[in-house]
Design a protein that fits this description.
It contains 6 helices and 9 strands; from the N terminus they run H-H-E-H-E-H-E-E-H-E-E-E-H-E-E. By secondary structure, the protein is of the alpha/beta class. A hairpin with a 2-residue loop joins strand 6 and strand 7. The structure holds S-adenosylmethionine (SAM).
C-alpha cells in the first residue's frame, strides 16, 4: 500500500489541484443527493476525499458532522488548510480506507472515484466489510464510479467500471439500490469522462 500512497501523494504534489482529471467546481450530484437523503446534523464520511469541494458545499449548507478520509498527506493538508475555520464540524483521517477503524458509525458514506481503483477481490471485500461495519442500519452509500462507456484507467491506474447490476451484485443482499444516474464529467483538458452514480440504502 506504500506504493499506492506514494503514487497519490506525488499526483497532489506535482499537479495544480484544479487540473486533476476528477476536479469539480461544484460536486453537484453528490451534493444534491446528500441534501435529499440526510439531515444537517447527520454523520457523513467522504472516503478518498482528495481536495474535493463537496465538504465546502455541505458546510455552506449548514452540515455539522463531516469526516474526510484521504490517503495522500499532501491532499489532506491542503483540505485542512482550506477548512481551517471549520475544525468543530470536520474530522480528518489521513489513512487507507482498507485499514480504517473508527468509533463512529455514519449516516452517509460518500465515495466518488475511489472504490473503482480496487481491482482485486480481496481489497473489494475488505472495503465492503468496512462499509458494512461503519455505515448505520438504514444508512446510505453514495458511490460514483466510471461507467462501462467511460475510461478504463484514471491517473494511470487501472479501474473497474460499474453498471447497476455489477455493483448491486458485488455489494450483496444487505444493500438496496435507491437510484442511479449517469454523468458526463468534463475533464479539465477538454475531453469528457462517463461516470455512474449509485445510491444504496443499507438494510
Ligand atoms: C480520483 S480521486 C477522487 C477524489 C475525490 N473523491 C473527488 O471526487 O474529487 C481518488 C482519491 O482517492 C484517494 N485514494 C485512493 N486510494 C485510496 C485508499 N485506498 N484509501 C483512501 N484514499 C484513497 C486518492 O488519494 C485520491 O485523492
Amino acid at each position: 500500500m506504500t506504493d499506492t500512497l506514494s503514487h497519490w501523494d506525488k499526483v497532489y504534489q506535482s499537479k495544480d489541484h484544479t487540473q486533476v482529471s476528477w476536479h469539480q467546481d461544484h460536486a453537484t450530484l453528490s451534493f444534491d443527493w446528500t441534501l435529499k437523503y440526510t439531515q444537517k446534523n447527520d454523520t457523513i464520511i467522504d472516503v478518498g476525499a482528495g481536495v474535493s469541494i463537496l465538504a465546502d458545499n455541505l458546510l455552506d449548507e449548514g452540515y455539522t458532522d463531516l469526516s474526510l478520509l484521504e490517503l495522500s498527506p499532501t491532499a489532506i493538508k491542503a483540505t485542512q488548510e482550506r477548512l481551517k475555520t471549520h475544525t468543530n464540524e470536520v474530522s480528518f483521517y489521513n489513512e487507507n480506507i482498507l485499514n480504517f477503524q473508527s468509533d463512529t458509525q455514519f449516516d452517509l458514506w460518500h465515495d466518488r472515484a475511489v472504490f473503482h481503483f480496487l481491482t482485486n477481490k480481496k481489497d473489494q471485500k475488505t472495503y465492503i466489510s468496512k462499509l458494512n461495519q461503519y455505515l448505520k442500519p438504514q444508512g446510505y452509500f453514495l458511490l460514483a464510479t466510471f461507467a462501462p462507456t467511460g475510461p478504463k484507467q484514471c491517473s494511470e491506474l487501472d479501474i473497474v467500471q460499474y453498471d447497476k447490476d455489477k455493483i448491486t451484485q458485488l455489494l450483496g443482499k444487505g444493500f438496496r439500490l435507491i437510484k442511479t444516474t449517469s454523468e458526463t464529467h468534463p475533464h479539465p483538458n477538454g475531453s469528457t469522462q462517463d461516470f455512474n452514480y449509485f445510491l444504496f440504502q443499507k438494510d
